[in-house]
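Q: I'm building a small set of examples for a reading group on sequence design. Run inverse folding on the following structure and report the sequence directly after it, with nothing in between.
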């Protein structure tokens, strides 16, 4: 089968923005070689760090915890500007915010928020760790960082939505990379090539994916073609290096 003599364990996130990247895997392109599971971004990272997975769609803020890891796909979760699904939501303007509830599902978005607060927005509100259903407490001068599918719901509730992808572009002039496919060990080259084909297959079936999901909270075709940019190109690699250099303790 491969050098591991077992199926390769793949951990991914079941968000709307990951559907194109997991489409080929779900359609069975390499089903005889893999085991696929879905979890929160932070739990996916835990699995890769503790070798409960061989490949994971990993939030990039976790890369420093896997110094010997390898990026194994030409596709990522990224944006060249407004990402729409990673926003700081508020009832008041940016500089009137007194506290921010932090989304519990993604360390990368929290790290990006902290960088933007210091370097782009020049604000210093109190940061509060949040738990499930914290969105109901986004009111008054308490803002909230909300990511993923729940951000589309929150867009219809909050007066202001400060898009973190757009703010990063304004600060650096670069796109942003939220997650990449990362392995914690060397894998056979023929498998990596097949995996790369499988993770890019969904980009050829966006209309089908949109129809299968049937989501009416946001224009998914716009999301997949204008907000999210899935190609891990040289500019995104430069952006990732820039972000990692700005991470505390990196």
């Amino acid at each position: 089968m491969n050098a591991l003599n077992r199926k390769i364990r793949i951990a991914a996130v079941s968000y709307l923005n990951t559907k194109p990247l997991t489409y080929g895997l779900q359609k069975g392109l390499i089903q005889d070689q893999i085991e696929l599971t879905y979890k929160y971004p932070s739990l996916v990272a835990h699995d890769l760090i503790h070798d409960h997975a061989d490949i994971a769609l990993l939030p990039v803020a976790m890369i420093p915890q896997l110094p010997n890891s390898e990026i194994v796909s030409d596709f990522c979760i990224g944006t060249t500007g407004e990402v729409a699904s990673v926003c700081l939501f508020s009832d008041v303007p940016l500089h009137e915010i007194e506290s921010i509830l932090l989304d519990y599902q993604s360390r990368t978005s929290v790290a990006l928020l902290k960088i933007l607060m210091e370097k782009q927005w020049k604000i210093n509100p109190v940061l509060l760790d949040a738990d499930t259903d914290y969105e109901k407490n986004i009111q008054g001068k308490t803002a909230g960082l909300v990511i993923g599918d729940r951000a589309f719901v929150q867009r219809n509730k909050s007066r202001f939505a400060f898009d973190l992808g757009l703010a990063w572009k304004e600060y650096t002039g670069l796109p942003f990379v939220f997650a990449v496919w990362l392995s914690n060990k060397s894998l056979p080259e023929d498998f990596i090539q097949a995996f790369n084909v499988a993770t890019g297959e969904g980009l050829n079936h966006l209309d089908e994916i949109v129809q299968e999901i049937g989501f009416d909270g946001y224009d998914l075709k716009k999301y997949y073609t204008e907000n999210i940019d899935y190609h891990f190109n040289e500019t995104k690699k430069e952006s990732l290096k820039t972000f990692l250099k700005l991470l505390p303790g990196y």
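The chain has a mean pLDDT of 93.
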